[in-house]
Amino acid sequence: MNHVAAGKVAYNADAWNTYEVRVEGDRFLVTLNGKRVLDTRDPKSKAGHIGLQYNKDKGIAFRSVKLLPLGLKPIFNGKDLTGWRKVDPPKPPAAPPEWSVKSGILHVEKGPGQLETEGTWADFVLQLDVRANSQDPNRHPNSGVFLRGEPNGYWTGYESQIRNEFTAGDRTKPVDFGTGGIYRYQPARKVMGTDNEFFTKTIVARGRNLAVWVNGVQVSDFEDPNPEGSNVRAKQAKLTPGAISLQAHDPTTNLDFRNLRIVALQ
């Protein structure tokens, strides 16, 4: 790594090798085929891009490239709504949302409405499992995860869309921005979620950049070019801390959430 030599370990030429790099703060741990080859620290490299190197005339191939966020802590205890609060729309809905918890799952039906965290975050990695429950193959539940929202504000901040609908059987053609898209700003590159099945959504917010992965596939990468402010809908880049919110979109809402975890980025 950089100017630190790795220990020698046998590897398989012309065969697949497993390579794992674990980075926590300024510490780097590298394992090749299950054997530790490097354990060092480098305070100059606490943040940056991940790159795959190619040397001319030296063939190499990569597969199963995965990134696992570290340090995630639960923001949902799986038992009740401790740490969360309901936020009602300005006009009382005919069918208020019903939020409930059972067997580690946060369930919501009906709406519109919102459930937001009592805590606030600016830069973070958020990971959660979502299931959009549909009884009709032609109807796809619509919801979203709001980021950096104004506490007690209704549907504020950035929205990471939840909607597993696409056109003409083509998952690269999302409807209404698609699951993982940044609503109003950037559609998902591909709809990776499927109704009636749990999918994992990973959201990274760092400064002006918002990136979303669904089931390990990156579907959006948005850099907000707008002037800094507090109103995302007014085309302002909100960079200050805010609440995380789950959306109950309309009377047909029927969704499940579980394993909601977050870690703040320094």
Give me some keywords for this one:
0% helix, mainly beta, 266 residues, globular, Jelly Rolls
Task: Give your account of this protein's structure.
With 266 residues, this protein is mainly β. The chain folds into two domains: 65 residues, no CATH class; 192 residues, Jelly Rolls, CATH 2.60.120. Strands 4, 6, 7, 9, 12, 13, 14 and 16 form an eight-stranded antiparallel sheet that branches. A five-stranded antiparallel sheet has the order 5-8-15-10-11, with no helix packed on it. A three-stranded antiparallel sheet has the order 1-2-3, with no helix packed on it. Strand 1 and strand 2 form a beta hairpin. The chain starts with 18 loop residues before the first strand and ends with a strand.
The average pLDDT is 95
Number of helices: 0
Q: Tell how many strands the DSSP assignment holds.
A: 16
Radius of gyration: 21 Å
Architecture of the largest domain in CATH?
A: Sandwich
Straight-line distance between termini: 23 Å
**What is the H level of CATH, i.e. the homologous superfamily of the largest domain?**
Exo-inulinase, domain 1
Helix-strand category: mainly beta
Number of individual domains: 2
Broad CATH class of the largest domain: Mainly Beta
Strand/helix succession:
EEEEEEEEEEEEEEEE
Shape: globular
CATH topology of the largest domain: Jelly Rolls
Largest sheet: 8 strands, antiparallel
As an assembly, this protein is single chain
Strand content: 35-45%
